[in-house]
Each structure stands twice: as structure tokens, then as C-alpha cells.
Amino acid sequence: MGVAGSSPGSAGSARGPVLDRDQADRALARLGAEHEAIETSLLALQDHAGRRLLEGAELTGVTKDRWASAEQSITLLWTYFDAYTAALEGAREVRARRRWPSREDLVELTDVLTGEGVTVSGGAHAHGHPASITGPAKLSEQFSLADLVGRMNDLYASSLDMVVAADAVWSALPARIDLLAAELHRTRSLAHSVGVRPGEHPAGDDLESITQELTLLRSQVVSDPLAFWRPAPGSSAPGGGRPDTDRYDRAARALEEVRREVDAVLTVRQDAEQRLVQLRDVLSRADRTLTEARSARGEVLAKIAASEVPAVSGPPTALQELLATAAEYRRRAQWHRLSPLLDSLERDAESELLRARESLTAVTAPLAVRAELRGRLDAYRAKVARHGMAEDPQLIERYDAARRMLWSAPCDLRVAEQAVLRYQETARDVLAPRPTTGPNSSVTGPNDRTNGGN
Fold first, then answer.
1. pLDDT in tens, 383-392
2. pTM across the whole model
């Protein structure tokens, strides 16, 4: 309330020192200022938007219980204030009797201003403080004005804390829930347009769950706002704390995930035709590669002897069927079904193309080995020719033997490789330097004359 209860100066009760005129006037002025401050606070509490909302709301749970107690406290506040007002007005009347108060006037003023001369009925007092277990509440109770101010401060603080907390929750959460619900409605409409519906797509089920959660959350926030209030640790100020937005935040995150899923489905709708064309191209290349591998396998079996040639799988008919299903999903605008199918088809189609290429490489490996042996044989023959040894009978014989093996069908690669190795060894022997002896001779050989070497 902003008014601290205190005794007026150094004066005591009516049984103690009697106030003089100046002390009584100062006490009256101070109590009058306190009265105005208390009245202002009580009227502000009475007009508080949160209190008006609480008064007209259908409350449940902890808010219902605390508001029932707060209503009693507010009623008791006004009862105390009325008693305080009556006592203050009585003191003012005594003081107004004469300019220079008599001894009797000062004794009466002292009793009202400093003593426990304010009577509050027991019914009103017990309204906020029930009877003890030892007996019923008192019919009435005596207070000093300072005690009344202290009591009013306590009741006001607890009542204002409850009102401010409820108002803070109502100000923060329902509006945010409504905005999220509006976003949920837009997302649900967009989701339905692309086939994301409950029972048909996980995101559709999530939308249904979020809708139910927001509906329940708003109902609970409106009827029991204090269940969503988290007091600040160690704070004694009225309204110290914050609204608990955990459930709202979880719903907002869940909606954002659904929105991303719907955006992904929308992207599928926009790119579906291009992705289907690319899939057809990949599967067509895989099919052509497998056809080439099967043809190459027949050639290898006819031309290469004693070689293990792996089998070649058939065309990817299962993927072709799934591709047809994807095209049907697109035709029927079932984007939520098309999205995951396209993702898996793209992965499987790339894997199929890779397998087809690996199969072609494995099947044609013997032909590659034969080509490598042919190249090696011709390279050594060219080297021998550069050194002028092409007409060497042994080289000619071994070259012809290797060539017949490599250019005849079926070719035994193991035997042909040995023939090539023999030709290489013979060529190295022929091209090796040959020493000569004599008084003025030096070691020379064919390489010296031809300016060549290995």
C-alpha cells in the first residue's frame, strides 16, 4: 500500500504521557496523510483490471481458492479502513472543539491517536482470521490506528499479489495462444491442401495434437491463471514473478516442426516433375549400363578362356514400379506420400546406377587385362625396333607366339601373360650391353651405337 504503520512520535497510550497540542496536531496530520494514501491504494485495487476479471470469471483450481480468500481479505480491508476513518474523524471532531484544547480533550485525543481505541467487530475480524481451536472468535477486538495500518498493509500486499499475478498471466498467455492458434489454422489449411491430414501423415497427427493442446491450455489459463504463475525466488514485492510459458513454448516448437514438414511437402509439389524426370534418366542409364554389361559378358565368354566372369543382374524392375507409383501420387496430388517416396527412390536409383557401373567394370576386367597385355607387347616391340633389333629371330619368334595368343579367341590370359613376359625378358637380354676385349678397346654395346637404353 506504500504506507508503513507506525506510532505517532514519542507519545504513548492514554495511560502514558498525554500529547500536547502540537503533538496531537502533528499526529492528526500524519494519520490524515496515511488515510489518503490508504484510500488511494484501496480504490486502485478496487479498479484494477485484474480484480475485475477475477470477479467476473468462472475460476477453477488454485485461483478459485486464492480468489475466495482474497475477496475476504479485500472485504476486511474496507472494514478496517472504515474503522480507521471513523476513528480519525472522531479525533478531528475532538480537536475541532476549541482552538486551545482542554486537558480532557488532549486525554481523549491521546487515547484515540495512540491507544487501542479502535473497535472492529469480531465477525469482520474472524472473516480473515478464523476462530482458534480453543474457542470461537472474539465478538470484537481493539486496535490502535498504527496496528490497523499494519493489518491493512499485510492484507493489501497479499491481495494485490494475487490480483497482479493473475492479471499478468491473463495479459501474457491468452493473446499469445490466440496468435499461435491462428498460425496453427493457417498451417493446417496449407497442410490439408497438400494431403497432410490426421491418420494419413505423421505431421497431420501432430497438428491434431497441437490443436487439442492449445484448446486445453487456453481453457486452463483463463480459468486458473495462478496455476501458470512462477513467483520470483526471494521476492516479497506484489506480483514478483513471471508467467509459466513452458507448455506454450513446447506447442510453438512442435508447430514450427510441422510447418517445416509442410514446407518440405510443398517443395516436393513444386519440384516433383523435375525430380521424376531425373529419376527416369538415372534408372535409364542404369538399365543401359546393365545391358552393356550383359553384352560385354557374352563377348568375354567368347573371347577369353579360363576366366571367371560374374553374372549380371536384370533391369531394376522394382524401382521402375516404384517410379510408376510416384508418378501416380503426383497425378493424384498426394504430395505427402510422394515426398518420402521420392527421397528413397533417389537414393536407391543412385545406388542402382553405381551397382550397374561396378558390374560392367567387373565383367569387362578380362578384356582390360588383355588390352593391357597387348599394349605392353607392342610397347616392347617398338622399343626393340628403335634399337635396330627388330629382325632378331628369337624376338620375332616370341613376339609372334605372344601375338597369336592375344589376338586369337578364346584367349587364355594366363598363358598369354607368360608369353608376353618371355618376350620382355628376351628383349631385355638382347638390348643388354655386350663387353669387347682388346689392347685399345673399351666396353661398348648396341646401346652405344644407337644412343639408346632401357
1. 888 888 778 8
2. 0.56
